[in-house]
Design goal:
The structure holds two protein chains of two kinds. Chain A is α+β, with helices and mostly antiparallel strands. Chain A has helices at residues 9-20, 26-38, 40-65, 86-102, 105-120, 218-228; strands at residues 124-131, 149-157, 162-168, 174-180, 184-187, 193-196, 229-234, 243-249, 259-264, 271-277, 288-295, 316-318. The longest helix of chain B is centred in the C-terminal third of the chain and has 28 residues, at 157-184.
């Protein structure tokens, strides 16, 4: 037995929930372990809490899936910043180009036109999740520090080349990269803000950018993707389901995600999810990334400018 | 599907929520949990083909139909978590060996009763709205940590943790109410 401090009821519940929320210190973890190992009643209490957490995840996802098409997610509406994505428009445009080549023209053209129109019609906020075994392999930057994680990042898109990608670094501080369509920028938690007239500058963190498919330049990315992917349309299986477009990288193509899947509402053409599978791993990072639409409320007009995201006192360096 | 495979699927489907909760408690990461669960499901099916303990999958032994299924599946899950830990290193959650052992017995003991209680959870969740629902959604659907939720909503992490605790307490109370009402009928 260790000599860990005994815990009372309230303390045990706090420790158990902290563990199940992935938010427990090593010392508290040892106290929790001691309590569970020593007392079968505590073990049972922890087991019940674990089952509650598991059921909450299942039920919250089921509830979200069952909501009406017209529902507007309010989850992130109170975020301090707003957003937009050129990624979306680029994907849609390139897939549209593909569709015209690889599927019955009328339906593919119609769908893509609707998706593009929908993407242009308003702001979108996506939550990014890394999936798969390589999820925990961090991208290591020069200097040895891991790059901010794409897992849990928020991507804001407006559909005309504007985007903001919000990630957390190893210290839990927010790193923002983005573009207002004309100038790209990066706002780190502290230090200088850098701005560039190269719209691809600072876009390396966007999933797919390592493979030259950053989804922020429709014209350049389209050519590469058109060469490399076969496209299939999958209509919704029933009235409540999402329709899908699947792009599979051709066997003779080099680089890029092996498979791209877009899920959208047939009635509104609202793009609800993107999945990039089997991303090349040469420089670390996740194997698969999912984008989930969490909000489509309008963002502030100046949201995609760097100035919106930092104090006027910050030093701004124009790189070119 | 042959009858034995059908039986394996039926037992696994029933046990899966408890095994899922157990694995998550040990690894603290959804993606890792899902990977481990896939390995557990495969091992369970292999173990079913290897009944009466003639070797079984990955040292767990075949399934003995005269004994309860869930403890056997939890044993497999614990082995698979250990395998994943060897491959990946430390997980966010790190219970001691003694705690893991105690948890296997505890999950097997409370699973059936807790499953019945949690069947009321969906109805109780419908009562949740406003900021509590928003926080709950960010935690359980979007999988943000309390610290990330706090950052997103401009709150203190401790405030988010307490809010989540209040939500869970309220849901527990709601479940108890519904169980009591059910018992009174």
């Amino acid at each position: 037995m260790s000599d860990a401090t005994p815990v009372d009821d309230a303390d045990f519940v706090r420790l158990a929930n902290a563990a199940l929320d992935g938010d427990i210190s090593t010392d508290d973890g040892a106290r929790l372990s001691e309590a569970i190992a020593r007392d079968p009643a505590r073990a049972a209490q922890f087991a019940r809490l674990a089952m509650l957490h598991d059921a909450l995840e299942r039920e919250m996802n089921a509830a979200a899936a069952g909501r009406a098409v017209a529902r507007r997610t309010q989850t992130l509406a109170r975020f301090r910043r707003v957003s937009a994505v050129a990624a979306m428009l680029a994907i849609l445009a390139l897939l549209g180009w593909f569709s015209l080549r690889t599927t019955p023209e009328a339906s593919a053209a119609e769908i893509v036109a609707r998706l593009v129109a929908s993407a242009k019609s308003g702001d979108r906020t996506y939550f990014l999740r890394a999936v798969g075994a390589s999820q925990t392999a961090p991208v290591v930057k020069r200097g040895g520090r891991p790059a901010p994680s794409i897992d849990g990042a928020i991507l804001y898109v407006r559909g005309r080349g504007e985007y903001v990608l919000a990630r957390l670094d190893a210290d839990g501080d927010e790193v923002l990269t983005g573009s207002d369509g004309a100038r790209a920028w990066i706002v780190p938690p502290k230090g200088v803000v850098r701005v560039s007239r190269d719209p691809r500058r600072f876009s390396g963190a966007l999933p797919g950018s390592q493979q030259g498919i950053a989804f922020i330049d429709p014209h350049a990315d389209l050519a590469e993707l058109a060469r490399s992917y076969e496209l299939t349309l999958r209509p919704a299986a029933n009235a409540g389901a999402l329709a899908r477009i699947v792009g599979v990288r051709r066997s003779d193509a080099r680089g890029g995600p092996k498979r791209i899947e877009l899920a959208y509402e047939e009635s509104t053409a609202l793009l609800r999810a993107i999945r990039l599978e089997n991303l090349p791993q040469a420089r670390g990072g996740p194997r698969t990334v999912e984008f989930e639409l969490v909000d489509d409320a309008p963002l502030a007009r100046e949201f995609f400018t760097h100035a919106f995201h930092h104090d006027a006192s910050r030093v701004v360096i124009e790189e070119d | 599907m042959d009858p034995r495979t059908r039986q394996a699927f039926a037992l696994w489907t029933q046990a899966q929520p408890a095994v899922s909760a157990f694995v998550f408690a040990l690894v603290g990461d959804r993606a890792v949990r899902d990977e481990v669960l896939q390995d557990v499901a495969l091992a369970v099916l292999e173990g079913f083909d290897d009944s009466k303990g003639s070797g079984g999958s990955k040292g767990s032994g075949g399934y003995d139909a005269s004994r309860p299924f869930l403890p056997w599946a939890l044993g497999i899950a614990r082995n698979e978590v250990a395998n994943a830990r060897r491959r990946r290193g430390r997980f966010p959650t790190q219970l001691s060996d003694g705690a893991e052992h105690a948890l296997v017995a505890a999950v097997a003991e409370v699973s059936e009763d807790e499953r019945a209680r949690l069947s009321h959870l969906a109805e109780c969740l419908r009562r949740l709205d406003g900021r509590p629902r928003e926080i709950c959604d960010l935690r359980y659907r979007t999988d943000l940590s309390p610290a990330r939720i706090a950052s997103a909503l401009g709150m203190q992490p401790n405030t988010v943790s307490k809010a989540l605790q209040r939500v869970r307490d309220e849901l527990r109370a709601c479940i108890e109410e519904r169980l009591a009402a059910e018992g009174a009928r």
